[in-house]
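It is worth pausing here to work through a concrete case rather than discussing structure prediction in the abstract. The textbook approach is simple: state the sequence, then state the predicted structure, then interpret. We follow exactly that order.
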Amino acid sequence: MTLEDLPVGKTAMITAVGGEGALRCRLLDMGLIPGTAVTVQKIAPMGDPIEIRLRGYELTIRVEDAKKIEIDGVKEAGGAL
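Step two, the predicted structure:
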């Protein structure tokens, strides 16, 4: 499952970050690191971008980038993973 498939209000654990070169480095620099819990906060009306919460801050990313982030362990927001 990838981050783009995570419904609003659900939390999951990042298991892998794909992509190549500068894009992958940029995602990792933004805190999207395996082992990090991430919650989908909002999805734009047209479906792109999506707002996520991780490490105590909100981040907005494109759906194309969210497809590169593998997740597992889906829970309700605020629940233990």
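Step three, interpretation. Residues 21-29 form the longest helix (9 residues). The mean pLDDT is 89.
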